[in-house]
Write a structure and sequence with these properties.
alpha/beta; 2 domains; 7-stranded parallel beta sheet; 6-stranded parallel beta sheet; Rossmann fold; 42% helix; globular
Amino acid sequence: MAAKLLNILTGINRTAEPASGSMILVNDLYGAMPDVHTTFLGRAPVDQAWKAAFERLITLSTTKRPHGPDFDHYADELTREVGALIEQIQPNVIHAQYLGFALSLAFTRTAGNIPIIAIAHGPDVMVAEHNASEREAMNEVAAASAAIVAPTSALADRIDRLTGRRFTDRLTVIPWGIPLSDARVRDQPPTETGPLSLVHAGRLDDNKSTITAVEAFALTDQPHHLTVIGEGSVREYLQQRAIELGLQDRVHFDPFLPRAELWRRLPTFDAFVFTTKGLEAFGLVLIEAQAHGLPVVYSDLPGAREILGSTGAPYTPGDPRSLAVALDEMGRDFRRRKTLTKAALHNARRYDITTTGRQLRELTLRVTS
């Protein structure tokens, strides 16, 4: 008997290119999901290689405007555009990425009898925690959804709290994943003690707290070297702070790298440093590092702890001294590094994107039936 072909409508209200973790994730996810026909709504410009995971990619024309005095008018315009597209596409189901953001609201207000699965990404939860109007929008989307997906139980718990625990039975955890078959491990495991060659990759903003790593380097006993890969609002400050601390020869900054290039470079380092101090939905880069055989030193947040547990080396979030101690301990004990390398590879195998795709498809089938 042939598998049921699902006609899915989804989208993210951003330029259609692999410029963020969420955009990379959805491209991997819908490319790995079997027996689906996916239409994706995004923004121009469109990365032609990136869009290969979708049978159809439609660029939204409504001018994007953030929350503020014009947001309601913008949401109404976007809703009219999305409503016309739904009439044309006639999907079996809608996957609303980001709870409460404008595109999810437009889906919610035009879906009619088409079931919605809302998928949380993290930034939507962060803004809802600090903004009443965003929280109201999240609740509107949650109320209209047949299921709400979060990548960790820690994020699901926060959504449950923000929605007044009215939709607990709709929440389900589906861990994210990466295309493990593309990952490569370096040939030689660690064989000696000494200073480490460390890497940190991701968006450079206050929540990612890369400053914790920079300031930790001024406190380490060993002259470790750190490569920071990424762009963001605090990059210039981080560079200046490294100079102030006399670390310009030990802390190096590289620009954002496409994932293929980042993955090529990961095996050349000794370990990965994860510094987020606030909410992190999942932290795909943790699994990317582990899949390439890197031990991970991570800030001990609930979500990261849920993903890594004892397969990484935790430290107190936002505490440079705690991070410095963890780095020096790893530098002194290559046997522990070797153990963590083995544990990292084993843990990463739990997070293949094909598993994520299969679980989301199974949930979608239950919702549509």
